[in-house]
Amino acid sequence: MVVETPPRFVPPAPGSANQSAVDLNLATRAEWLRPGPLVGYVEALVSVSVGLILADSARRWFDLTDIALILLLSVLFPAIRYGIWPAVLGSLVAFLGYNFFFLTPLYTLSVSQPRELLALVAFLVVAVLTAALAGQSRERARVAMVRERAIERLYAFTRRLSFSADRVEVAEVVASEVRAITAKRCAVLVGEGERLALRAVSPPETQLDETAQSAADWAFGCKEVAGAGSPFHGDSAWMFLPLTIGRRPVGVLGVEVDHEGALDDDEVALLHALAEQAASAIDRAALSREADRARTEAETERVRNTLLASISHDFRTPLASILGASTSLIDFGDRLRPDQRADLLSSIREESERLDGMVRNLLSMTRLEAGALDLRKDWVDIGEILERLVDQGRRRGMGGKIKLAVAQGLPLVRADASLIEQALANVVANAARHGGREVSIVLGARRDDGWLRLVVEDDGPGIAADLLPRVFDKFVRGAARTGDGGDGSGLGLAITEGIVKLHAGTAEAESPIANGHGTRITLSLPIEDLT
Question: Chain-wide mean pLDDT for the chain?
Fold first, then answer.
């Protein structure tokens, strides 16, 4: 057997005690056949003695029938407290005392009258039957109560298993429960392919020797009980029960029986019941893990297909423009007027910048998801970044459609200037792409307590109500109203949020903001003390 990971010690479950094992054993046996404790016999003798004294005191006022009832009552008390056999002893003593003290001739065990003999026999039968019934009722009540506690314990065990999310946690729960019930060393080994891995032991110093490991491997491979008390690897001090679903093994449950004594039939039966539940829980945890893996793989595949479709679609337009402009320059450059050539070159530059933005966003998203996007923080003037974005917008033909509204006296913030600029550029590009050709965009910044609020507002049609809660998710795109600006891949705002979160900030979207239209994107960055 190969032990892949060190086992973890699992303490007994809260509220458990070794007495639980005794209770469970008592509950599964016909205890009314067992002799009671010695104190029960002593109390039976004392009770009958007291009954005889009371009966002797009352003989001057009552007849023999009433005296017999007093003695019957003295028999019932030990029957109720200690069970059948102390009560039977009390019945015999009461029978002899009744004959010796109350039937003529007195102070002898002989009987002179046949009717007195009949009464004496009747008294003995009634006393024994009454004691037996009372004792049996007591034992049945006690067995029912103990079984109820056992059922509650098994129910609690099942509930603990139902809340266990993985196989290691299931193994820990099983080990703690078996230890609490049997008060013996235990180990839970879980199947990893064709091998066993030790996942939980109790108590912590528990170890499996080579003989025990061989028995565990045999139980797992052959799906049969192995080790102590079985024909297979019987020289081992451990007994291993296979944990199976149908005929498919999922692990083994081991209990050391050498140091604390052999397990009885009831403990073995209980272990089999626990093993069935443990096998189901381990299998359920394995299926849950496989389902999670399948969902992850499906989501990865979906994202990959979406990304490929997005790239193939969104790269086609700028590439076609670049190809067309460059081909025209090559084939007809000497026939074109200078202004026409300048226009084609400008188109190549703009589409190249657009492609560059797409590639940068894809790389940024990859780094964000991989946690590999490094921040190079320094003290940054947000006003300068906003001015550069306005200049870029005007160079791209937006003219008076993009404006700046920055409050005076803004503090510097510690941030990565290039990433913050990229985050804001994505928001501006998104507004230009979805706002229409006549959209107006306002870039603003203001101080709000300990935050610097960067605001990008537009007067476009706004964001659809069903898209607003998901506007910062990957690959969420609205209908573009212009081909100018934006990468169109649905990554821009997702990257913006990721960058802002890396700076311990937040990103929020509001729409509509005025007269049923318009969008406001607010990026909040924390203001740090310059000292």
Answer: 76
Domains (ranges, CATH) in the chain? 35-159 (no CATH), 181-282 (3.30.450.40), 315-366 (no CATH), 373-526 (3.30.565.10)
Residues 461 and 481: beta-carbon distance below 8 Å: yes
Distances (CA, A) of 439 to 237, 271, 327, 425, 511: 83, 74, 33, 16, 15
Mean pLDDT, rounded, for 436-460: 89
**Maximum Cα–Cα distance across the chain:** 153
**pLDDT over 50 at 28, yes or no:** no
Whether 5 has a pLDDT exceeding 60, the answer reads: no
Q: How many beta carbons lie within 10 A of that of residue 44, not counting itself?
A: 29
What is the percent of the chain where pLDDT is above 70?
73
Average pLDDT over residues 154-177: 75
Helix-then-strand count for the chain, H and E: 12, 13
Q: Yes or no: say if 7 and 198 are a contact pair by the CB < 8 Å rule.
A: yes
485 vs 373: which has the higher pLDDT = 373
Q: Are 7 and 123 in contact (CB under 8 A)?
A: no
Contact 484, 505 (CB under 8 A): no
Residue 484: closest CA among 388, 360, 394, 364: 394
Length of the chain: 531
Q: How far apart are CA 381 and CA 357, in angstroms?
A: 23
144 vs 488: CA distance, rounded Å: 72
Q: Is 257 left (phi over 0), alpha (psi -120 to 50) or beta?
A: alpha
